[in-house]
């Protein structure tokens, strides 16, 4: 695997001393997104397709996507939800259960339907009740994935109630991930939406079989944000945001030019009424302004020149795909993110979604 890339400037500036006013990037991909289904799919899919050429689509529907047929049907529903002419390819994933048949995964891979498999520890997060209760039950699955080089995407948190929620990722790495990589040295693994310095360090030190995605929200917020001015359901996601030192480690990893870290938004929309509830859902809806959000972080670090590799090159390299043709362009044009976005549910009743950065001014705007 290639080492860190040097910082480079790939954007136009009006003059030596003024900041860039336009930033063109090879069209990026989102290596982790929740597109949902039904009316929510209709509402959110266009936002992802507007920014990204491809996206790894999470399979945690209810019921989850566990068969090739279900993935093909879901892919059709995604295509049907896209605006005419959208140049967007959904990359489908299989949801691993204790009893999933490895032959089904192999068939889905051979048919070009499954781009990866997703491992949710049972009850770790939204729609994960059918997830994996014990990694030991999946030995044959892991052997198959290793043989066919189908990536395994992991929600890396233990569900042990005795482990503090802020420690669940670090404990997962120690208890489960490290032994798994040792048992299956040929398995390609993505540790999803990392949130800790422990995860960033572990991924950086591991061999080329392991990479990680990093979300915009974990680059912007620490756990204080969840309680700023009151309880903030719009900033609650899993894994939950951690201390500031962890956020800083994630920013350093994302902007380092190390190809083991790449873009995955974990955009996870829930209607506002389901988040602002007695038992609110986990998930942050960041898709509409995702690339603008990442650009802010890279610019603050003086590393805008490394955004393209993080967003558009390292992901395809890990997955063994070509980068996208075409480009997107961001312009420096401050704009305010709406406090709410609106959609209709299946019965035509309006539902509200609160986007990440609601009400904030973003310095960059994606051109249509
Ligand atoms: O915050 C989250 N929301 N984390 C997950 O792992 C799942 C996701 C969802 O599906 O809502
Ligand atoms: Zn997710």
Which secondary-structure class do the elements indicate? alpha/beta
Q: Largest beta sheet, briefly? A: 8 strands, parallel
| Helix and strand pattern | EEEHEHEHEHEHEHEHHEHHHEEEE
CATH superfamily: Metal-dependent hydrolases
Gross morphology is globular
Mind telling me the C-alpha Rg?
19 Å
Overall mean pLDDT stands at: 94
Chemical compounds bound to the protein: (4S)-2,6-dioxohexahydropyrimidine-4-carboxylic acid, zinc ion
The number of strands is 14
CA(first)-CA(last) distance: 35 Å
Q: Architecture in CATH?
A: Alpha-Beta Barrel
Low-confidence stretches: 1-16
With strands numbered from the N-terminus, the spatial order across the biggest sheet is 3-4-5-6-7-8-9-10
CATH topology-level fold name? TIM Barrel
Top-tier CATH class: Alpha Beta
Secondary structure tally, helices: 11
Helix content: 25-40%
Count of the separate structural domains? 1
How large is the share of residues in beta strands? 15-25%
Overview features:
368 residues, alpha/beta, TIM Barrel, four-stranded antiparallel sheet, globular, binds zinc ion
Model description:
- The protein has helices at residues 38-51, 68-81, 102-110, 139-148, 168-183, 197-205, 216-220, 244-254, 272-275, 290-300, 307-319; strands at 12-13, 20-26, 30-33, 54-57, 89-95, 114-119, 152-154, 189-191, 210-214, 261-263, 327-336, 341-344, 350-353, 361-366.
- The protein is an alpha/beta fold and 368 residues long.
- It has an 8-stranded parallel β-sheet with strand order 3-4-5-6-7-8-9-10. Strands 1-2-11-14 form a 4-stranded antiparallel β-sheet.
- β6, α4 and β7 (152-154) form a beta-alpha-beta unit.
- α6 runs parallel beside α8.
- The protein is globular, with a radius of gyration of 19 Å.
- The model is unreliable at 1-16 (pLDDT under 50).
- Bound molecules: (4S)-2,6-dioxohexahydropyrimidine-4-carboxylic acid and zinc ion.
- (4S)-2,6-dioxohexahydropyrimidine-4-carboxylic acid is lined by residues 34, 60, 125-126, 155, 237-238, 268, 282-283.
